[in-house]
Amino acid sequence: MPRRPVAVFAIAPWAFGGVFPADLVTRLQELVDIDPATTFTSFEGAAAAAALAEADILVTGWGAPRIDAGVLAAAPRLRAIVHAAGTVKAGVDPLVFERGVVVSSAAEANAVPVADYTMAMLVLGAKQVFSRARGYAAAVEGAPREWLRGEGTGLHDCTVGVIGASRIGRLVLRRLQSFEVEVLLYDPYVTAAEAARLGAEQVSMDDLCRRSDLVTVHAPALPETRHMLDGRRLDLLPDGAVVINTARGSLIDTEALTRSCAGGRISAILDVTDPEPLPPGHPLFSLPNVLVTPHLAGAQGRELRRLGEFAVAEVGRFLSGKPLLGQVEPEQLSYIA
């Protein structure tokens, strides 16, 4: 009788239940032998060594240990790593690919709630909802009701600049096609023809800043993208522009952004910051034209299940020899988020 494939969970307990509810575990157990009572966050110790020795597949998630040379040596049967979360950049050593192990990520599934969050913030940001709500709450009886003023607000007929045609960036571009807006795209790896197919005009970074009423950032954190929105480029933004960052905090110069927002010339909606979290009492927390959220745009709560569904389906595709929808190629490690 042929040996059934063996899989091992490597995911933090706090994430496990949301990503892999009982019915998804049952579905996974129909494909592989896997013990849901054991989820590793370290591969040290005898129990981990025994599990790795038999593992054909590692099903990983948030809190998984890095897969490096030591793990590979302990897992001679390992054929695939299926990551039920976003990026694998920090968790997978390039040696994994050299060993011929297939790597898959649920980044596509995790991109969906980030794109939805971005669209919500574009609508609310264009309406100046956050600053107007604060003005409303602080209004004094008899004072001019400035929070009612809506001149120049609303997403309709705006110019939206999208920085980065990443997975999330492309989902945002697709959603923007439902709105009556002009869309600009900066991505040095996208041609003008491809940008047009995505519903956008390809432009330089500086041109995007000059022309955009709203800028949404979806680029990876690389040495060359650090502070890509620096003081000079923030100064190019039109008065009243809104900057939205759901990517990585290092893409924006925090000090320059703070100065620009403190002067009231532009606004910002930040789900990521540099540093993250910001220190208590940082000016960005109290500025009326800035909203800082605690890195919550990605899958949370009921959205976590989508990651588990993707991972289970990916295990099925791997075992049946079908192409993987989330396969990560080794060259992608240098530029993925």
TrEMBL record:
D-isomer specific 2-hydroxyacid dehydrogenase NAD-binding domain: residues covered: 146-297
GO cellular component, one term: cytosol
Domain of life: Bacteria
Residues annotated as domain D-isomer specific 2-hydroxyacid dehydrogenase catalytic: 44-328
Alphabetized InterPro entries for the sequence: D-isomer_2-hydroxyacid_DH, D-isomer_2_OHA_DH_cat_dom, D-isomer_DH_CS, D-isomer_DH_NAD-bd, NAD(P)-bd_dom_sf
CDD domains linked: 2-Hacid_dh_8 (cd12167)
A Pfam match: 2-Hacid_dh
Annotated keywords: NAD, Oxidoreductase
Xref: SUPFAM superfamilies: Formate/glycerate dehydrogenase catalytic domain-like, NAD(P)-binding Rossmann-fold domains
GO MF annotations in UniProt: glyoxylate reductase (NADPH) activity; hydroxypyruvate reductase [NAD(P)H] activity; NAD binding
Family label: Belongs to the D-isomer specific 2-hydroxyacid dehydrogenase family.
Name this polypeptide is given: Phosphoglycerate dehydrogenase-like enzyme
Organism from which the protein derives: Nonomuraea polychroma
